[in-house]
Amino acid sequence: MRKVANTSWLLMLLIALLSACGEYGWNNPYATTDAGKNVLYNVFSERPKHLDPVQSYSSNEIQFTAQIYEPPLQYHYLKRPFALIPATAKEIPVAKYFDAEGNQLPDNMRAADIAYSIYEISIKPGIFFQPHPAFAKNEQGDWLYHNLSNQELSSIFKLSDLPQTDTRELTAEDYVYQIKRLAHPRLHSPIYGLMADYIVGLADYAHVLKQADQERSQGQTYLDLRDYPLEGVQVVDTYTYHIKIKGKYPQFLYWLAMPFFAPIPWEADLFYSQKGLIQRNIALDWYPIGTGPYMLTENNPNLRMMLEKNPNFHGEYYPMEGMPGDEENGLLIDAGKELPFIDKIIFTREKESIPRWNKFLQGYYDATGIGSDSFDQAVQLVGQGEATVTEEMAAQGIRLETTVAVSTYYMGFNMLDPIVGGSNERQRESARKLRQAISIAVDYEEFISIFANGRGLPAQSPIAPGIAGYRDGAEGINSVVYDWINGQPQRKSIQVAKALLAEAGYPNGIDQRTGAPLVLHFDVTARSSEDRSKLDWMRKQFQKLNIQLIVRSTDYNRFQDKIRKGNAQIFEWGWNADYPDPENFLFLLYGPQRKVGNNGENAANYDNAEYNQLFEQMKNMEDGPERQQRIDRMLEILRYDAPWLWGYHPRDYGLYHSWYQNVKPNRISNNNVKYFKIDANLREQKRRDWNRPVLWPMALTVVMLIISFIPAVMMFRRRESSAAVSGATSS
What we know:
By secondary structure, this protein is an alpha+beta fold.
């Protein structure tokens, strides 16, 4: 007689299994091997296009490049206003001024009398590059990977497939080599045009390199910049180099704190020039090489990117002093301790805000911004409008950090477009009034209220608050768009906008020449549902003027290409200041900085002769009344011409878990990860508490299923027993 197994063991096994699994978070998206380790978990939404410092200039790129590359200068992490301090340099270089005959001039000499300036930079000895295959040699001293054969390349798909690495000491030549790369004919540096106006000989050097590149032997891919001297940048000795600048340019020191002026070793340039590696996307744009605290060890920009501590980092220490309140806020607890504190940073790509928000609440991201859909859940206003976290967030130990962003978000008009820009005088006059009408119609006060939860200030010009040249109050308003009424700016009525539209030749949004409705195209990088809501809102703003707005959405890299080629009509973009000076905003509309043709940062391709002349005067001046006077006139020109719809200046809100320490947000200094600290044990404890699986419903369901099977099992056993008895009787 066959027996049916007792079901009680199944129930006991289920209970034991559920009890064991209950110790761990089933929803943990990370490898269990990283549990409790000193790892920072971050996010990114757009894949970086350039990680080569000569080309990279976007905020989604600098969060990586600033941790890897080390320019000679950096910003003090805690001090405000922002103050430059040495990074790899021994000290802050002091400009020496000379006349046309080469005679040194006093420091207080007028800018007009200065022919050129020299900045001499001495770097610290004993700094080494990260481990990299470009430095690897065999026992005979020959390069291992500088001339890879097809057979060797057949098994190479990523940089880590080359197992041998080495390093060497940083020298002044590495900095000179990178500056030369700004003029490389096969690279497109966004600051080349600007730097060619300042660095002596850089424009001519570009022509020399272009000719040399054209004369290269067939199949040769490497252009050795060491063979071509650049007058304005020269090596003095192993650890010293100098840069020769036309005239006087006080803001040049700020550029020395940017990755554009970080070192690149010639060995890496040669290594990455191999055709076989280029075909496999093994290049500086994909695998950076630096002396900074971190190195990129995984680059899968559709999923994950990873930075890990550079074992060769030369050593740096947390600041010993800060601003009033820093000590009370716990920002000096680690004063004098060696950097960096965090071993690894894992960046996960998140395209949508809701999954990012949920993972933050579960403790799987260490910090997050705040979308409009989660603002009320996260933030409450108390007292005199002061923002703080809600009780729910506070109970989780989450804190809010806010700062005024030195940034501007704007809508740009392509001035090369015949409708919004114009190619002749009649078209330009029509286009100017059209741009003014749109500037009035698009209500950014409403936008800030709906989509930014009040976290912003309507912009009156490109210059952000906190920057010299910015004016507040009545003297700072855009009089084309606003009236000053009862001590406040008030947006002009839609009737004023409609009158301007009619003067532009589009009464009630109809082209009076053709009788067809006016249709405009808007290029954006929108992806999420929140973005779609913003675009619907923007269409309604244009509908106030009976203008049809067609949105063309694309990924960020494709968007950049369209802007560079001048294929956009209207576009949405933003700018985070690289350095705290009005020049860094005003150069965005300087004619020679046009995107089309010059590959500069003037995405609107705006070109006004008077503005350009004033910019050239203003840029070399020290802050003061004379400089302010020129800035005021420049802003007056911009407001009248309206190449941008000025948008708004955001206020940054960030949420941080209790285990995330040493955070003082800002958008000027980008190499901040080395200062951050994670309490991994506290994070692990909180994750366990917040992500314990609720198992009783599952167990109850299984038990009910088992109970429901018992009658059937008993009936089956009775039948089996009856069959056995019958069989015995018949036998």
